[in-house]
Amino acid sequence: MFKDFMARLGHGAAKVDLILEQNRFAPGDPVAGKVLIKGGSVEQRINKIDVRFMLSIYAKGHVHTHPVASVPFYQSFVIRPGEQKELPFHFQLPGNLLVTGQSVSYYFDTQLDLAGAVDQSDRDYIEIVPPVPLSNILAALSRLGFRETHHSRKFNGYVQEFELVPTELFREQVKEVEFAAAIEPNGVRLLLEVEYYSFGHHHEVKREVFIPQDQISDPDALMMLWQNLITESMSTPHYGHGHYHIPHSYHHGQSHYGHGHYGHSHHHHSHLSGMTGAIGGFAAGLIGGVLLDELLDGDDNQNHDAGLFGNNDNGGFFDDGDDGGFFGGGDDDNWV
Question: Which domain of life is it from (predicted)?
Fold first, then answer.
């Protein structure tokens, strides 16, 4: 009787443990493992087991936690004292998840519903690593001496932003390189911002860039592409400050660097926001509005550090002025 009473309070009760085959995944990967239930000191009825995949985002001093998906086990059974029972676990990760970073984390929350007793739980953190095309882009920038900052991989309510600073080649010229990305069937589309110094002043150049798959798969070509792209960004300041036209060398599939093209695609309305494959697009649909309200709450004073999607004087990618911006509703004539 005493054991029954203590088990109802959670002491000596059955326990649950989610055991995964690994804890590092790319978006879209399958997750496999097992749910292990260990009987306690008394016989107990298990009403159900529920495994929830959770996303946690840290923004402006607050942690926003939201369920991404749930994998329920509705079968009810009795677990005897000391008995162990295993249930197979399988789950398919969404394809456009945020990548794990300083402000983004994921975990599986496993709940064991015990009849007439305190429920038991288990938490298992996993890491979502960049998909291969994005990983190759980050590796190419790393070869040029760029390193991700502490604030890189933050979620702005729409997509995930990657922020890198130079440590070698461009250290005296470039302040930072920032981009958002969408993985497309034939390559990667970037909304890119290069911040650099010139004659004692700070400048920004923003543009849309498409990198085809053949260059994504060639480490040397990809590194050279980035070196030339950053250099050209600094030599064409008139393309910055809220104007998002692509330099002539990127138009109509032409490239100075061979192996296909990078630049604006021929699909005039292929804006990144809401596109399939946008890194963080899944989270935008899940919690974008809630988090965006938090990010913008009380932020009446805009400044040039607002990032890729800020509403600063330079427009930002959400600018809907004369140029439309990458997410704006400008005339089609502005998209070459």
Answer: Bacteria
- pTM of the predicted protein model: 0.75
Residue 134's nearest CA partner among 62, 54, 189, 208 is 189
Kindly compute the dihedral angle of the four CA atoms of residues 136, 140, 141, 143, in this order, to the nearest 10 degrees.
130
Amino acid letter for position 213: Q
Q: How far apart are CA 295 and CA 158, in angstroms?
A: 11
Q: Report helix angle 219-235 to 132-143, nearest 10.
A: 60
DSSP letter for each residue of 281-330:
HHHHHHHHHHHHHHHHTT--S--TTS-TT--STT--TT--STT--SSS--
Residues 6+ apart with CB under 8 A from 283: 55, 57, 97, 98, 155, 160
- The DSSP code for 331 is -
Q: From residue 290, how far is each of 57, 158, 296 by CA, in Å?
A: 12, 11, 10
Residue with tokens 């330099």: 247
Q: Which residues of 240-261 are buried (b: 16+ CB within 10 A; e: fewer)?
A: bebbbbbbebbeeeebebeebb
Q: Which fold has domain 2-128?
A: Immunoglobulin-like (2.60.40)
pLDDT digits (tens, 9 = 90+) for 67-115: 999 998 878 899 999 999 999 999 999 988 999 999 999 999 999 999 9
**Bridge partners of residue 123, in order along the sequence:** 109
The angle subtended at Cα 11 by Cα 9 and Cα 17, nearest 5°, is 105
